[in-house]
């Protein structure tokens, strides 16, 4: 079931962190290698919270989309204004919930919610074959062999994908 949050107070943060546990572990190791593992995770979660409260949710039109299954967060993504549409970013599924179709269900629910009124862009790491397959399954097509991020920086390690359900004129 799709759940949309337009503010941090509308999210259950610890449930969201369970979805992003693997990424937080990786980020903790990368950014705070000198710290013990539990502290690395704590710092990554604090950084995540700070980003959501001070940057993401201050952006007009920003929305967090969560897929709930049996009352638990199992997959999540962020949407924020980008070019002539929205950027779908931070798509993640809890490790123990992967390969069950939840990421695709979440993307499709977001697409239905948008009712074809806007384009959806997504930047996906070129090596992330599972994410590329999910996006393709949901109707995304590759439009660039690089990503231009919201801040204007260019990432050559990612593809830019686009979903546009509007009929051609």
Can you describe what's shown?
The protein is an alpha+beta fold and 169 residues long. The chain has one domain (2-163): Gcn5-related N-acetyltransferase (GNAT) (Aminopeptidase). Helices cover 34% and strands 31% of the residues. It has a 7-stranded mixed sheet with strand order 1-2-3-4-5-9-6, with helices on both faces. Strands 7-8 form a two-stranded antiparallel ribbon. Strand 4 (85-93), helix 4 (102-114) and strand 5 form a beta-alpha-beta unit. Helix 2 packs across helix 3. It is globular.
Q: Outline of this structure?
A:
34% of the residues lie in helices and 31% in strands. The protein is of the alpha+beta class and 169 residues long.
CATH H-level name... which superfamily? Gcn5-related N-acetyltransferase (GNAT)
CATH hierarchy: architecture? 3-Layer(aba) Sandwich
The fraction of residues in strands falls at 25-35%
Sheet having the most strands:
7 strands, mixed
Low-confidence segments, ≥5 residues, pLDDT <50?
A: none
CATH top level assignment: Alpha Beta
Could you name the CATH topology?
Aminopeptidase
**Main sheet: strand order:** 1-2-3-4-5-9-6
Number of domains: 1
Percent helix, as a range, is: 25-40%
Q: Span from first to last CA? A: 33 Å
Note the overall shape: globular
Overall structural class, as computed from helix and strand content, comes to alpha+beta
**Number of DSSP strands?**
9
Radius of gyration: 16 Å
Query: Helix-strand pattern, N to C?
Result: EHHHEEEHEHEEEE
What descriptors fit this protein?
169 residues, Aminopeptidase, 5 helices, alpha+beta, two-stranded antiparallel sheet
């Amino acid at each position: 079931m799709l759940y949309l949050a337009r503010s941090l107070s509308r999210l259950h943060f610890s449930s969201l962190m369970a979805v992003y546990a693997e990424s937080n572990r990786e980020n903790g190791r990368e950014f705070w290698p000198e710290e013990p593992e539990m502290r690395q995770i704590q710092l990554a979660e604090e950084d995540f919270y700070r980003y959501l409260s001070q940057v993401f949710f201050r952006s007009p039109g920003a929305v967090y989309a969560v897929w709930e299954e049996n009352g638990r967060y199992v997959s999540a993504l962020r949407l924020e204004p980008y070019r002539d549409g929205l950027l779908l970013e931070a798509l993640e599924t809890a490790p123990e919930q992967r390969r069950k179709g939840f990421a695709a269900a979440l993307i499709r629910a977001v697409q239905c919610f948008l009712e074809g009124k806007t384009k959806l862009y997504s930047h996906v790491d070129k090596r992330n074959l599972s994410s590329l397959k999910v996006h393709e399954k949901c109707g995304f097509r590759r439009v660039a062999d690089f990503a231009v991020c919201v801040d204007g920086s260019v990432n050559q390690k990612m593809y830019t994908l686009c979903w546009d359900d509007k009929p051609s004129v």
